[in-house]
Automatic annotation (TrEMBL):
Keywords: 4Fe-4S, Iron, Iron-sulfur, Isoprene biosynthesis, Metal-binding, Oxidoreductase. Residues 262-348 form the IspG C-terminal domain. Converts 2C-methyl-D-erythritol 2,4-cyclodiphosphate (ME-2,4cPP) into 1-hydroxy-2-methyl-2-(E)-butenyl 4-diphosphate. [4Fe-4S] cluster binds at residues 265, 268, 300, 307. It comes from the Bacteria. The keyword Iron applies. GO terms for molecular function: 4-hydroxy-3-methylbut-2-en-1-yl diphosphate synthase activity (ferredoxin). Belongs to the IspG family. It catalyses: (2E)-4-hydroxy-3-methylbut-2-enyl diphosphate + oxidized [flavodoxin] + H2O + 2 H(+) = 2-C-methyl-D-erythritol 2,4-cyclic diphosphate + reduced [flavodoxin]. The keyword Lyase does not apply. This is 4-hydroxy-3-methylbut-2-en-1-yl diphosphate synthase (flavodoxin). Pathway: Isoprenoid biosynthesis; isopentenyl diphosphate biosynthesis via DXP pathway; isopentenyl diphosphate from 1-deoxy-D-xylulose 5-phosphate: step 5/6. It comes from Paenibacillus ottowii. Binds 1 [4Fe-4S] cluster.
């Protein structure tokens, strides 16, 4: 584990963001929130993939009203994404939302801000301040000329100041930009001076491919420095992919304890099996496992066992057959056609033993 930055622990439903807790994975629904059936179905898919907190847009009264029913049918904390409209925030709070994403400086008159803060305080609901490089306040654009990391941090401090003045401290802060170096600089600066948990994100990162690379670059740099208490990968793709990418990224840094890892070789001229399709099938199989096992899939028996030493279970191709390895030692040979099924059986045995301990 990397040394986490000390932040104030903030409760969101039954979870705590910040403090010494693991980085929490979030995603956002793509459905119309008022369409309860579609929204619940998407959230249940996200839960299965490992999403721990989910956000929905609350852009009208129907969406705010739907929160009550959605909450009854899901198992993870629900966040309302609200822009400007304090009435929608109050309705969402009344209907049982677990967290509100709203910028207090954009709500308008002081009484409106006070009403939202009072309602949040009464129900123990935190507020996420979402600074976005693309929508900085005009006074900051006038001061800095264009979005900069300093302007983003100043924007966060401005909104934090409003909440602190009302003695409200259950705050989470994000400073998103689609420009990766700008986001890294903003979060790094914020981590030095803001004591609240930081929600990491590279906004409008792009498609599954480009967005994954950009997010991994930006958030990887931050996570490796111990920055970030929760994160959302933003992709122009099925949100389940966001969760898969987030889990993989956290695994890379040893920041998740309930995920299985795949080790697979890049293949070379020694390859003896159809490794790409086998690796993909095994990756799908282990994606939903909630235990920290390592599975390796290697193309040949020459380097395979050595490369798979760290794995709990693995397979290496040999002509027409596969060699099953456990902790680097061969346990048996299986015909090529049965390799994947045999590997899955071995994975199931290890998972069962893990769950029983
Ligand atoms: Fe090549 Fe074998 Fe190494 Fe895969 S495990 S890269 S096939 S030598």
């Amino acid at each position: 584990m990397f040394l986490r930055q000390d932040t104030r622990p903030v409760k969101v439903g039954n979870l705590t963001i910040g403090g010494s807790n693991e980085v929490i994975i979030q995603s956002m629904c793509t459905t119309k929130t008022a369409d309860v059936e579609a929204t619940v179905a998407e959230i249940l898919r996200l839960e299965e993939a490992g999403c721990q907190i989910v956000r929905v847009t609350v852009n009208n009264e129907e969406a705010a009203a739907a929160i009550k029913e959605i909450k009854k049918r899901i198992h993870i904390p629900l966040v309302a994404d609200i822009h400007f409209n304090h009435k929608l925030a109050l309705l969402a709070i009344e209907n049982g939302i677990d967290k509100v994403r709203i910028n207090p400086g954009n709500i308008g008159r002081r009484e409106k801000v006070e009403a939202v803060v009072k309602a949040c305080k009464e129900k123990g609901i935190p507020i996420r301040i979402g600074v976005n490089a693309g929508s900085l306040e005009q006074h900051l654009l006038d001061k800095y000329g264009y979005p900069t990391p300093e302007a983003m941090v100043e924007s966060a401090l401005y909104h934090i100041g409003i909440l602190e003045e009302l003695d409200f401290h259950d705050i989470i802060v994000s400073l998103k930009a689609s420009d990766v170096p700008m986001a890294i600089a903003a979060y790094t600066k914020a981590a030095e001076i803001i004591k609240y948990p930081l929600h990491l994100g590279i906004t409008e990162a792009g498609t599954l491919f480009t967005g994954t690379v950009k997010s991994a670059a930006g958030m990887g740099a931050l996570l490796s420095a111990g920055i970030g208490s929760t994160m959302r990968i933003s992709l122009s793709a099925d949100p389940v992919e966001e969760v898969k990418v987030a889990r993989e990224l956290l695994k890379t840094f040893g920041l998740i304890t309930n995920a299985a890892t795949l080790i697979s070789c890049p293949t070379c001229g020694r390859l003896d099996i159809d490794l790409f399709s086998i690796a993909n099938e095994v990756e799908d199989y282990i994606a939903k496992l909630k235990v920290p096992i390592k599975v390796s899939v290697l193309g040949c028996a020459v380097n395979g066992p050595g490369e798979a030493k760290e794995a709990d279970i693995g397979i290496a191709g040999a002509r027409g057959e596969g060699l099953l390895f456990r902790y680097g030692k061969m346990i048996r040979k299986v015909p090529e056609a049965e390799m994947v099924n045999e590997l899955k059986k071995e994975i199931d045995i290890i998972v069962k033993a893990y769950e029983e301990t």
